[in-house]
Amino acid sequence: MAIENVRHWKIGDVEVARIVEVNNWEDDIAMLLPDGKPEYVQQFPWLLPHFATPAGRMLISFQCFVLKSRDQRVMIDTCIGNDREREYPVFSNLQTTFLEDLTSAGFPPDTISTVLCTHLHFDHVGWNTRKINGKWLPTFPRARYLFGRKEFEHWQHLRDTGGYHNFDHIVDSIDPIIEAKLEQLVPTDHRITDEVWLEPTPGHTPGHVSVHIRSKGEEAVITGDMMHHPIQLAAPEMHGNFDMDKDQGAKTRRAFVERYADTDITIIGMHFCDPTAGRIVRDGGAWKFVLK
Questions:
Q1: 165 falls in which pLDDT band (50, 70, 90)?
Q2: Contact call for residues 225 and 14 (beta carbons, < 8 A)
Q3: Sign, CA torsion 24/230/263/116
Q4: pTM (two decimals)
């Protein structure tokens, strides 16, 4: 196990662990924000050293979370996965220690009772399955896989109508779950336990959700891809390149930031590099991320 791949938190009685698959990936901010320039990143010194380089390039990670609440052991998204061809070469044919890291974190695959996909992009569903003897089979055969009904139906529509998206990940990471009859289609406010529930955060995709945790007076929200990088707190209404509905994504981010700013609620960013968790605080006319 790579030590940096795993981090643990306790939210009341809820135990949360983070598993990183691709760590501290560096890229131009224009990948995320339209017309983004290094100079824009450099305006925000609070991004250093965890979330940006001195040269103004962004740092993000591809990771997932797993939690224990009551009698449930819940995977929240499942990263990219090994042995796959993807649209982008950097994500193709990965060979990572993901399953070993998951086990070392205290969550062996055969103990997972629920898999929740915040949405159905390729980097959030990959380890739903693994290749065994040339066949894609469920990685967590004892689990129910929760897909948002609205999200699932949207991707089915895109596929049926030859929509604009690449669908390789649907074939190897979603179809085998349906064939095994392990799926459960749920509403965007579904409760997993009395301590853990879904919070609708549409825009990145139509049925996108974040995950809210509340236990013993402590709270946290795992963002999903409602935002990808802390720089989006500086201007949450700025369009994100990866949002399917850019206007809705901007409205959702703004409402999220206003709801959780200047509270003690822990924000755990799905793609935020280590240490990943912090608080949203007001910063002049905008907001910033302060580590916890």
A1: confident
A2: no
A3: negative
A4: 0.97
Domains of the chain: 3-291 (3.60.15.10)
Q: Provide the 8-state DSSP code for 133.
A: T
Q: Could you report the per-residue pLDDT of 124-139, keeping only the tens digit for each? A: 999 999 999 999 999 9
Q: How far apart are CA 254 and CA 248, in angstroms?
A: 10
The span from the CA of 23 to the CA of 21, in Å, is: 6
- Coil vs helix vs strand at 290: strand
Can you name the residues that pair with 198 across neighbouring β-strands?
Answer: 211
Tens of pLDDT, residue by residue over 71-87, are 999 999 999 999 999 98
For residue 205, how far is the Cα from the chain centroid?
A: 12
Question: CB under 8 Å to 78, separation ≥6 — which residues?
Answer: 64, 115, 117, 124, 125, 126, 127, 128, 139, 173
Q: How far apart are CA 6 and CA 4, in angstroms?
A: 6
Q: CB of 67 within 8 A of CB of 17?
A: yes
Place of tokens 């129910």: 144
Amino acid in position 270: M
Tokens 């990263």, located at residue: 79
Q: Cα separation of 278 and 206, whole Å?
A: 27
The 3-state secondary structure of 213-263, one letter per residue:
EEECCEEEEECHHHCCCHHHHCCCCCCCCCCCCHHHHHHHHHHHHHHHCCC
How many C-beta neighbours within 10 Å does residue 248 have? 17
Residue 68: closest CA among 43, 105, 122, 117: 105
